[in-house]
Amino acid sequence: MLTPDRLLHAYKLLVTARSMADTYDANRQVCKYVHSTSRGHEAIQLATGMQLLPCDWVSPYYRDDSILLSVGFTPYELMLQLLAKKEDPFSGGRSYYCHPSSRNTSKPSIIHQSSATGMQAIPTTGIAQGIQFLEQSQSPLLRKSDDGKLPIVVCSLGDGSVTEGEVSEALQVAVLKQLPIIYLVQDNQWSISASADEVRAGNAYDYAAGFKSLKRLQCDGSDFIRSYETMETAIAYARAERRPVLVHAKVPLLGHHTSGVRREFYRNREDLLKHGLYDPLPKLRLLLTGVGYAEHEINQAEAEALEKVTADFTRAQHAVDPDINAVEDHVFAPTTVTEEKGKRVSKNTERVMMVDAALHAIEELMEEYPEAVLYGQDVGGRLGGVFREAATLADKFGNHRVFNTAIQEAYIVGSTIGLSALGMKPIVEIQFADYIYPGLNQLITEASKSCYLSNGKFPVQMVLRVPTGAYGGGGPYHSGSIESTLLTVKGIKVVYPSNAADMKGLMKAAFLDPNPVVMLEHKGLYWSKVPGTDDARTIEPDRNYILPLGKANIVLEADAARIRKGETVAVITYGMGVYWAKAAAEQLPGQVEIVDLRTLFPLDEETVFNAVRRHGKVLVLSEEQQNNSFAEALGLRISNHCYHFLDAKVEVMGARNLPAVPINTALEAAMLPTAEKVTGRIHKLLAY
């Protein structure tokens, strides 16, 4: 309820935000890092934050410093991020102003926020999806208010960002699943220098009409009373009905787009005057006089706010800078899985296929961890995955834990960020490696950076399964290899098992790792249908078996006598390359040692370099197109670290450098490495 005291509190916060913006602008040399402020947007932001509870979640965007003030952060805390100081509570000096992340239990929680417009919609909707799951399963992970109120989620967006396709994916899921989330869209009619009529056919309120059962509200976001009432309605609806709402608030843009893109660069005097007519500050000030506050009381509130901002700014300038020796901290959260555990060879005598080893690993994990969920395209009950890699799981664990998604790779990847923040353990799948690219935006922009830029508060625990590789005429859109693309992304781990035992052990380790892990699973090894890959079937390890990431395996040793004579080659490979190398080794008895990397990042450099030093000749073998590949990069690393031990230059062998794998099986074979081609390359090395 809005009382005179609450109105005065709102005004103090508004004046504080305005004073902060003025202070930053007056000290541009000190405030050297790019920043935006909420100038003009304050009323709707304060009306939102003032009504949120500590059990709630909010995702502010980069102009939302008034939201942060209204949920309880101080100017000093915000200024520490502005000036990139060590004690910045959000990122430790690593990210821009108003890019928060918080697990402070006295305030609404905030997952890592990035600069990419609209990208927060998917991870934040993932939070709402997770809350719904925890609520329906009566999980102890669900955090309620002290008086038992259920949490809601607020996702704040600029209207220009609503044109992003990923916002549409988020809205689709929110409406489909009826999630307790509010999309607050602040419309200032500008997308940097592009005006609204240049870049969109309608505003967010119009756009939202296309999403059935999405409640829509709109208000004058410069009017604090109207904003408060609108957000009160939205919050009450989401909290009680557990359904989504979109609030469209029209606001003036009184400041610059950012400190680096200033309003005078692209806006004329007429536009600035027009926006100035809707300044929320004089409106709220006039309202205070109308409810009985004397002029001197209002002046005193303004003076106190300015004094606080001035003092905090001076204090923030003198705060210590980050320790440069800590620059590599929090790239990953530490994992507890560091040693191989359990029985790799169990009492079972029947060998299992890789696809079944993965299925059994996930089944055992879901039995042990009720917060684990599995989702992706076609993994639900009817099909259980196009490779039957999730068969029977929906029947065993229910449609709420194993379910289909729409064709939304970005949502599949990005939603795990929200679920992970709640303590859930998502396992998700992209149907084919060739289709991961729509999901890369979320993987790179959000998931990979979350731990680092939140200063360790929000690592993303997720397993992303990706069937990959070529065999049997799969064609150009179902046969691609993507490891080099993934390995350019820092902050994720990449695993590539080549047999059933490794698959099970690595799947368990990936699940228990608190960081994003991509499991590349070769389709040609799933059922050992490719000639020469029968060894991919192994006796299944027991349910306690865990194989740490970053441990390579020597799957074939060379003859010691031949090693002493310099008549051997080390083949460094993974996936299908293991079987091409094995077939080649049959033609060269005792002369080939095969190192199966198993994990591409983290990489077991010690095992690789030791193998190279033993043999002096090395072939790095990959299924990927060779130019600019991971294999070539590894070849250079080997040359740099083992130069004095090499008897020949490092050989690298991959597929031909074509843009796609042809569907014709003869053309496919012409493109890919084969056992015969590998044998020929090894002969070349041995002839040095």
From TrEMBL:
<comment type="function">
    <text>E1 component of the 2-oxoglutarate dehydrogenase (OGDH) complex which catalyzes the decarboxylation of 2-oxoglutarate, the first step in the conversion of 2-oxoglutarate to succinyl-CoA and CO(2).</text>
</comment>
<keyword id="KW-0786">Thiamine pyrophosphate</keyword>
<dbReference type="InterPro" id="IPR033248">
    <property type="entry name" value="Transketolase_C"/>
</dbReference>
<keyword id="KW-0560">Oxidoreductase</keyword>
<dbReference type="Pfam" id="PF02779">
    <property type="entry name" value="Transket_pyr"/>
</dbReference>
<feature type="domain" description="Transketolase-like pyrimidine-binding">
    <location>
        <begin position="352"/>
        <end position="528"/>
    </location>
</feature>
<dbReference type="InterPro" id="IPR009014">
    <property type="entry name" value="Transketo_C/PFOR_II"/>
</dbReference>
<dbReference type="Pfam" id="PF02780">
    <property type="entry name" value="Transketolase_C"/>
</dbReference>
<dbReference type="InterPro" id="IPR001017">
    <property type="entry name" value="DH_E1"/>
</dbReference>
<dbReference type="InterPro" id="IPR005475">
    <property type="entry name" value="Transketolase-like_Pyr-bd"/>
</dbReference>
<dbReference type="Pfam" id="PF00676">
    <property type="entry name" value="E1_dh"/>
</dbReference>
<dbReference type="InterPro" id="IPR029061">
    <property type="entry name" value="THDP-binding"/>
</dbReference>
<protein>
    <recommendedName>
        <fullName>3-methyl-2-oxobutanoate dehydrogenase (2-methylpropanoyl-transferring)</fullName>
        <ecNumber>1.2.4.4</ecNumber>
    </recommendedName>
</protein>
